[in-house]
Amino acid sequence: MKKVCKNCKRVFETMSCKQNYCTVSCRNNYHYYRHQQARVEYQRKFRRTGEYAVDKVQCLICGKWYHHPMSHCWQTHKVLSKEYKIMFGFDITKSQLSKKVQDVMSENTLARFDSIEANLLRHRDKTCFKKGHQVRYTRSAETAERLRHQFDDYHKAVKEGRIKWHYNTK
User: Fold this and answer.
1) CA separation for the pair 155, 55 (Å, rounded)
2) Domain boundaries in the chain?
3) Long-range contact pairs involving 137-140 (C-beta distance under 8 Å, separation at least 24)
4) What is d(CA 154, CA 136) in angstroms, rounded to the nearest whole number?
5) Alpha carbon 117 to chain centroid distance?
């Protein structure tokens, strides 16, 4: 069977109907350049690193502005995101991203929501909270305040009869 290589457009002989490249190096080159193109496109969208913009987040170590400051902190300052958040009193479980990056990540997550939901349901025992399980970190003041408000709002709604008390016995 004769086919045309996706990368170099040469005609080649193959026995398999699934083979799309004339050689392994041709396949690797094709995927490498596709990855490079996607990377360049991403950088074009979020260019001019370090400059102030309304939708960027400031790195509190050096004062420059980034869409993804946690990535910058590790690459430039060799500070992990958890250490950075503890150092400046941020909530460890909350991300420090610009609105633009949050929107892109939300779109990507929603695009693959079915597979994520299936995996969570399949591995439910590993992902559910277990009674008596120790939390591995101390909560920041921001997190504690947020949880306190959620708890108070929930119990207020139960007392007013807007929602019923829910207790999962599993």
Assistant:
1) 36
2) 1-45
3) 137/82, 137/92, 139/92, 140/85, 140/86, 140/89, 140/90, 140/91, 140/92
4) 25
5) 16
Length of the chain: 170
Instruction: Annotate the chain with DSSP letters as a single string.
Output: -EEE-TTT--EEE-S-SS---SSHHHHHHHHHHHHHHHHHHHHHHT-STBS--TT-EE-TTT--EESSHHHHIIIII---HHHHHHHHT--TTS----HHHHHHHHHHHHHTHHHHHHHHHHTHHHHS--TTPPPSSPPPHHHHHHHHHHHHHHHHHHHHTSS-------
- How far apart CA 121 and CA 127 sit, in angstroms, is 9
Tokens of 164: 């019923």
pLDDT in tens, the chain (170 residues): 788 887 788 888 876 777 788 888 888 877 777 777 777 777 666 666 677 778 888 999 999 888 888 988 998 999 999 999 889 888 888 888 888 888 988 888 888 888 878 887 787 777 666 667 776 667 778 888 888 888 888 888 888 887 766 555 44
